[in-house]
């Protein structure tokens, strides 16, 4: 039974997280991130973040055990140590990704943060699943798989996405936002993590399952709020695309209906509005990136301005070249 549950633990820890990962990537519908970088962020959460967090947790719990005793140290580990150690470890990769040319705004921060959190959740879930499998408690294993797959691991993704979203939101804003982004992002991340762990810990201490059910309900509410905020970030991204492309219509670079369709997720993928001969996917991608690069050039620092302004020139040339491929209408 242990061997069977262990094999199932591998599948149950990995497959749902990979499915969630691709769902998050797909939800970034206007300008999806490079899949290779997205997967690297996920792998950092699964390997690097887990390794460093394990060392940090064990070290701090050992120190607390020496100071306040092992029982209290284990309680503090869930309530305080784990959130304060694990959230920075998961978010470390975001500080590397945010300086790449692919990290543009809050939407990108959301998806990269979620990727790191899902990777962390995958590895942590595997350890928990195998540990319960060793006890031979099949029903306990099933319950653990359900709770940790749909709640604990998703909690990790939600928490780290808060850090990423704030970093993305602040990147092309003033110094005040740049200074405030980190404490705000980590404040939400640690808070989400600490409340989740705290409710479960209190429930175990008092032996009342009501705390677990209350925790599940509270987390569902937090999840809905974060999804709503993510949709607002997508709405802002769409508004930026429409605004910047409207300016390109005034410059007579492209027709008005092209700007409107490229700014709509529903219309941009429909056939018929792009003239024959123009590769629609490449054309829409060029328009989207042109709009985002214009916005970034306007708000970039002096050091980064030259890169973004050169990108605007390059993308305008690409759009012109693509439009030149249009074949004359027949009949």
SSE layout:
Elements: H1 2-27, H2 35-68, H3 70-97, H4 106-133, H5 138-171, H6 175-206, H7 210-250, H8 256-262, H9 265-268, H10 280-299, H11 302-323
Helix pairs in contact: 1-4, 1-5, 2-3, 2-4, 3-4, 3-5, 3-6, 4-5, 5-6, 5-7, 6-7, 7-8, 7-10, 10-11
Mean pLDDT equals 91
Our Rg estimate from Cα atoms comes to 23 Å
Give the overall silhouette: elongated
Structural class estimated from helices and strands: mainly alpha
Polypeptide structure, described:
The protein is an all-alpha fold. The chain folds into 2 domains: 2-207, no CATH class; 240-323, no CATH class. The protein is 83% helix and 0% strand. The chain contains 11 helices and no strands. Helix 1 (2-27) packs parallel to helix 5 (138-171). The chain is elongated, with a radius of gyration of 23 Å. The relative contact order is 0.10.
